[in-house]
Specification:
There is one protein chain. The protein is of the alpha/beta class. It has two domains: about 210 residues, Rossmann fold; about 80 residues, formyl-coa transferase, domain 3, CATH 3.30.1540. The chain is about 35% helix and about 15% strand. The protein is built from 15 helices and eleven strands. Strands 3-2-1-4-5-6 form a six-stranded parallel sheet, sandwiched between helices. Strands 7-8-9 form a three-stranded antiparallel sheet, covered by helices on one side. Strands 10-11 form a two-stranded antiparallel sheet. A hairpin with a 5-residue loop joins strand 7 and strand 8. It is elongated. The two termini are about 15 Å apart.
Length: about 375
């Protein structure tokens, strides 16, 4: 087992207990940034969901955590680790003898990252749920979609935005604290909490009296006709977002709309008529014709691409936003680091033996 040689987290050791979506994605982020991550999986476990991409960059070790010998070897790995990631229901790790209390007693600097939907406490903590449930109680789902019904935004807002990314940022903060104080701690990352945080700007707008509870009625939820997607003559869609007056002026002139006073445009009462005018203009040309004139300007116009089309968009190609690895085109690591560049590393094809994992971590640099 060779340790990573690139990224800002080289030298950080993390144990990941294999689970679903948000936890593996967080572990992938750490591996991309150079951390030495080992996955612990049940022997013969069949993944609930495929993860040929989110499982990249780290070996898997099979361990029966109900077997005392395997569990003790895992504890010995955790004695050498900087952090742990687990995404089980509250109480599962405690029943396995791998809860925070005994592990922090053995390794006081351990950062114990817990990824759940509802959190470790509260009346829903022990119950099942999925992204749609967590974002429903946060206020996010009610704000997303057409006027007649809420629309789940894939599982981007909850699982990955409100979940994984808050687990990563919380664990990084706890790792910094542990380096300074020598004391680890538990990071309780709940998707419902993170999603509430993601709504900060919406709550700002509400506090300023600029938010309506109806869907499709606000500046950024599709209600504003100058922040929306429109169908073109070829049946494809383009997205427009010229919110500021100077950007809208560029857009207005380019598409041939008559004079439009910004004060009138900002009044939601005028939005339906303006939407009809913009939609009518968009239908007069193909998407390529509009994009040729508007995409590379400050009119804030972009093509609406599917995932396969995104891979070949010139801007994303220029930034190397995708990488081909293990036979898959997949998202490249983000963000970018100038001094310690990150690297997407292949997924090891063979399972690593517990003894080999221990030997590889036997001495701490």
């Amino acid at each position: 087992m060779s340790a990573p040689s690139a990224g800002p987290l080289v030298g950080i050791r993390i144990i990941e207990f294999v689970g679903l979506g948000p936890a593996p994605f967080a572990a992938m982020q750490f591996a991309d940034m150079g951390a030495d991550v080992i996955r612990i999986a049940r022997p013969g476990a069949v993944p609930t969901l495929p993860d040929p991409i989110s499982g990249r960059g780290r070996p898997t070790v099979e361990a029966d955590l109900k077997n005392p010998a395997d569990a003790e070897q895992v504890r010995r790995l955790l004695d050498r680790a900087d952090a742990l990631i687990e995404g089980f229901r509250p109480g599962v790790m405690e029943r396995l003898g791998l809860g925070p209390e005994p592990l922090l007693a053995r390794n006081p600097r351990l950062v114990y990252g817990r990824m759940t939907g509802w959190g470790q406490t509260g009346p829903l903590a022990s119950h099942a749920g999925h992204d749609i449930n967590y974002i429903a109680i946060s206020g996010a789902l009610a704000a997303i979609g057409p006027a007649d019904r809420p629309m789940p935004p894939l599982n981007l807002v909850g699982d990955f935005g409100g979940g994984s990314m808050f687990l990563v940022s919380g664990m990084l903060a706890a790792l910094l604290s542990a380096q300074r104080t020598g004391q680890g701690q538990v990071v309780d990352a709940a998707i419902c909490d993170g999603t509430v945080q993601l709504l900060t700007m919406a709550y700002d707008m509400d506090a300023a009296g600029q938010w309506r509870s109806q869907r499709d009625a606000n500046l950024l939820d599709g209600g504003a006709p100058y922040y929306s997607a429109y169908e073109c003559a070829d049946g494809r869609f383009i997205a427009i977002g010229p919110i500021e007056p100077q950007f809208f002026e560029l857009f207005r002139k380019a598409v041939g709309l008559e004079e439009d006073n910004h004060t009138l445009r900002a009044d939601p009462g005028n939005w339906p008529a303006l939407r009809e005018r913009i939609a009518a203009r968009m239908r007069t040309r193909s998407s390529n014709q509009w994009l040729a004139e508007l995409e590379y300007s400050d009119a804030c116009v972009s093509p609406v691409l599917d995932m396969k089309e995104a891979v070949v968009h010139p801007h994303l190609v220029a930034r190397n936003s995708f990488v081909e690895l293990d036979g898959f085109v997949q998202p490249a690591p983000a963000p970018r680091f100038s001094g310690t560049p990150t690297e997407a590393r292949p997924r090891p094809r063979e399972t690593l033996a517990l003894a080999d994992a221990l030997e590889g971590w036997d001495t701490r640099p």
